[in-house]
Structure formats: C-alpha cells, structure tokens
Amino acid sequence: MVSTARTYLRILKYYINWPKSQFKAYSIIKQFKPHAAVGVGGYASGPTLKMAGMMGVPTLIQEQNSYAGVTNKLWLKSKKDMCCLRRNGEVL
User: pTM score > 0.90 for this model?
Assistant: First the structure.
C-alpha cells in the first residue's frame, strides 16, 4: 500500500513539474536563439527537445552508449536523426 501511494505521488510530481520544465526550456531557447538543439538523454533533454522542436529549432539525439536510455528511446520515435558512438562502422 505504501509503495502504491509513493508511485501516485511520483506521478503527480511529474505532472506538476512538466509545465515548469517546459516554460524554463522555452525561456532558455528564446534567450539563446540556438541554431540546433542536441539531446544527450536524461530528464533535462525531454522538455528541452520538445520545446525546441515546437519552436522550429532543428533537434538531434546523441546516444553515447550502445544501449539507448529511456528518454532517448521516447524521443527516437518522433525524431529522424540520432547519433551513436561507432568504431570502424560497428556500434560499440
């Protein structure tokens, strides 16, 4: 029962923080006026890439591991470009 309550609190916290993250990403992108946005995974990449795409900034996902993380997997579905580490044509 306790773990279920914690799960619901985490979900609620996510939905409370997401709009704040989107607004912060919008402010940063508007201030810096980037030519492109590169996401390297992690929580910060999600709102930033989404907002950059909505603002017309080209986006790119860079995955430094051979196994993509959760954020990069989610964004890969909607993005066309992803960079991975390679050596002699082989994914490491």
Answer: no
